[in-house]
Amino acid sequence: PPTITTSQSLHTLILLHWSFIRQSLLLGVCFSVKRRRAMDDERYRLEQRIDHVTGESLDATRRIRQVAEETHGIGVETLVTLNEQGEKLDNAERNLDEINVDLKQTDKNLTELEKCCGCCVCPHRQTRNVKGTKPYKKVYGKKAQQMEAITEQPGANNGGGSRQAGGPYVKRITDDDREEEMEENLQAVSDVLTNLKGIAGDMGGELDRQNYQLDRLNQKMDVNTVHLEQANYRIRRQL
């Protein structure tokens, strides 16, 4: 059999060694390509997820802004209705005050008719003066008029105030037009909430004023009713 020389063995070993290196390099390249593809796929899925979440977030801010603006509109309409109701109460109170003025003039006229010989009222014709009673003084006295003036003054609105600088509300990830619109929507919602706080303060103040005025109206109606009954009694006595 042919003998294998040392040089041939060395050459064979070198060939085997380079073959192994070549296969290792090929395997490394294949693994690197697969890894790169896997990373690209993962990055694509992540980008798709970010795009989906951004779209949902944009829709959510649009809905929130729409609800906030609708609520603001309802608040404004309610405040307008409340102010109109306040004007009606003011008109009713002015009418009651005019009735009181007319009744006082009627008292003067009846007093003149009741005078004996035109100088003084006969003792048996004297009646209790309504204007001297506590209920009358409570609603038509000087202190009552001062209290009316105080309650009619517009109170300070604690609900408004300067808008605090907010934002940015959106942490930028894609930094595209959608995130810009989300920022605008959330800023608009913040402004609406600030305005709603002011409207709520105005409504609360107006409701307090009207509740106090309603109590005053009831008291004035009671006083005017008693005053009118007394005037009718005095008139019937003159007949």
UniProtKB/TrEMBL annotation:
Q: Please list the coiled coil stretches.
A: 82-116
Q: Which UniProt keywords apply?
A: Coiled coil, Repeat, Signal, Synapse, Synaptosome
CDD domains recorded: SNARE_SNAP25N_23N
The organism is Geodia barretti (Barrett's horny sponge)
Source organism, top-level taxon: Eukaryota
Gene Ontology cellular-component annotations: plasma membrane; SNARE complex; synapse
Q: Is the keyword Repeat in the record? A: yes
Protein family (similarity comment): Belongs to the SNAP-25 family.
Principal location: other
- What is the annotated localization of this protein? Synapse, Synaptosome
Q: Name one Pfam family in it.
A: SNAP-25
Instruction: Answer yes or no on keyword Glycoprotein.
Output: no
Annotated signal sequence range: 1-26
Q: What is this protein called?
A: Synaptosomal-associated protein
| One GO MF term attached to the UniProt entry | syntaxin binding
Annotated ranges, domain T-SNARE coiled-coil homology: 51-113, 176-238
Q: Name one GO biological process term.
A: synaptic vesicle fusion to presynaptic active zone membrane
